Amino acid sequence: MKRNNTGRKYPGLLIAIEGLNASGKSTQVHLLYEWLSGMHCRVFYSQWNTSEIVNEVYRRGKKTKMLTPTTFSLIQATDFSDRYDRQILPMLKGGFIVLCDQYVFTSYAMDRIRGCDDTWIRGLYQFAMPADLVFYLNLPIHLTMQRLHDARIEPSYFDAGMDLKLSQDLFESYRLFQGRMHNEYLAMAKKYDFQLIDATLKIPEQQQIIRKMLQTTIDLKEFKEGKH
Question: Which CATH topology does 13-222 take?
Answer without folding.
Answer: Rossmann fold (3.40.50)
